[in-house]
Amino acid sequence: MTDAQDTAADSSLRTTGGAPPDDGGSSVTGAPAGASSPDTGSEPGPEPVPLLEPRDGIPPVIADGESLARVIAAFDAGTGPVAVDAERASGYRYGQRAYLVQLRREGAGTALIDPVACPDLSGLGEVLSDVEWVLHAATQDLPCLREIGMVPTRIFDTELAGRLAGFPRVGLGAMVENVLGFVLEKGHSAVDWSTRPLPEPWLRYAALDVELLVDLRDALEKELDRQGKLDWARQEFDAIASAPPPEPRKEPWRRTSGMHKVRRRRQLGVVRELWETRDRIARRRDVSPGKVLSDAAIVEAALALPANVHALSALNGFGHRMGRRQLEQWQASVDRAKALSESQLPQPGQPVTGPPPPRAWADKDPAAAARLSAARAGVSALAERLNMPQENLITPDTVRRVCWEPPEQVTADTVAAALAGHGARPWQIEQVTPVLVAALSA
């Protein structure tokens, strides 16, 4: 019996009147009645089963070396894939570090680890290095896991698997409900996970997040195999697991929300100074930059170029609740930008490293615009036939680059080589090459 079936059979975990699902009612092998594959009919099945408690109860939070050593030994002795999740404090703390790590493996049960108290989990990462990790939306969690020494060599991403299989809703709660027939309580996803001690309802939620991940993985693997997409998914998972850490963003201040309103170089200088001052303060205080000063306030000050603290205090975002010292600090940033020479001011726009924006193609290169239009239509039709989002079939940036600078001789081999040069996986190249050859030859 799987974790999912065992949990469903335990009446203490179901709401009053609920019935444990049987083995039928789905083309996803092993899923309970009421679960569905993306192309099943619309006939409603039994109501999904709410999960109220982890099967083994809420485990204690691991916050010391001795307890961590026991967890490492238990997970080393476990069998099969390991479900992994991490909780961050986005919107509350500076950066994207992990504040709770959840794992579950057959034979080891569930572990909740405090990476603040146990900041080095490389020992755990080592014993799991050859194990397949099951994550949901892996690219969100892998960076913060890498920071604490946990780096997988093999993964199964249940969100990406859902996209490739054609499920219209791929959040964890929706996938567990649609594929396995269970309802996860998702009310604590956006809380401040840096809180200590963590409240029991949050820990219950965290434990349930990994309770059924392996079951979901197994069901999705069967569905992908049924659709002939399992090898495609494996190529995608391998690409994620082997990808190097992303390079730091150049000029991250340019991503300030509302930047489209800022056009003059002096105003851009104010945005940069305010952003960098805010970032230093947020880093020092370990709080989200938005809690120090909003993007809207930065843009407001850049557009107004206030002459003094009094003028600054009249702007939105610098209201009466901001103290004199804070106002002086922000005004000093504005004044530094106003004092810069022309050569020190930032240039408008970011350096372009690829094709121009598609809206400019018709004027710059009408033939390229025609190629892009044909390619987009072909990719859209193919994605619909394959029942997956276009961006998972091939990235829009790759299509743009190939259409802007196509091979001198358009053949299946040259187009395939161009796609490979832009990082497309073999399955994508096989599927998309005929479409692009036709679009580039039109």
Sequence-ordered SSE layout with sheet pairings:
Blueprint lengths: L2 H7 L39 E2 L10 E2 L2 H13 L1 E10 L9 E9 L2 E5 L8 H6 L4 E4 L2 H10 L6 E4 H8 L6 H9 L1 E2 L16 H12 L1 H14 L3 H13 L22 H21 L3 H4 L2 H10 L4 H5 L10 H15 L22 H4 L1 H21 L3 H4 L2 H9 L7 H10 L4 H16 L1
Parallel strand pairs: 1-8, 2-5, 3-6, 6-7
Antiparallel strand pairs: 3-4, 4-5
Features:
two-stranded parallel ribbon, 9% strand, six-stranded mixed beta sheet, 20 helices, disordered N terminus, single chain, alpha/beta, 442 residues
Describe the structure.
With 442 residues, the protein is an alpha/beta fold. The chain is 48% helix and 9% strand. It has helices at 3-9, 65-77, 122-127, 138-147, 158-165, 172-180, 200-211, 213-226, 230-242, 265-285, 289-292, 295-304, 309-313, 324-338, 361-364, 366-386, 390-393, 396-404, 412-421, 426-441; strands at residues 49-50, 61-62, 79-88, 98-106, 109-113, 132-135, 154-157, 182-183. Strand 4 (98-106) and strand 5 form a beta hairpin. The longest helix is centred in the middle third of the chain and has 21 residues, at 265-285. It is flat, with a radius of gyration of 26 Å.
